[in-house]
Specification:
With 113 residues, the protein is mainly β. The chain has no helices and 10 strands.
């Protein structure tokens, strides 16, 4: 089964950090463009990172300078390092290929004191 599986979410205090993982199963992520999205309760899903296979990354202003994507091709896994987290970052985070494929279950990130 071809899928991406997110993990690494949790509860963190404002100002803290988390690293999310996105493991490929049944696919090789090496040559794929990858995206990270998030969806907060009552809000639309929004893009937070776009990672091309050539290393050209895009981040919206809401997370620029705080979030950074990377990938470990040997582990067939992508990562989203999130620093200086804010309560507004609370959401379910998803990774996907680009163009978009099926959505996984995501991983919950809660930023709260």
């Amino acid at each position: 089964q071809v899928q991406l599986v997110e993990s690494g979410g949790g509860l963190v205090q404002p100002g803290g950090s988390l690293r999310l993982s996105c493991a490929g199963s049944g696919m090789n992520i090496r040559d794929k463009a990858l995206v990270w999205y998030r969806q907060a309760p009552g809000k639309q899903r929004e893009l937070v990172a776009s990672l091309t296979s050539g290393g050209y990354d895009y981040y919206p202003d809401s997370v620029k300078g705080r979030f950074a994507g990377s990938r470990d091709n040997a582990k067939n896994t992508a990562y989203l390092q999130m620093n200086s987290l804010k309560p507004d970052d609370t959401a379910v985070y998803y990774c996907n290929t680009w163009p978009l494929g099926a959505w996984g279950q995501g991983t919950q990130v809660t930023v709260s004191s």
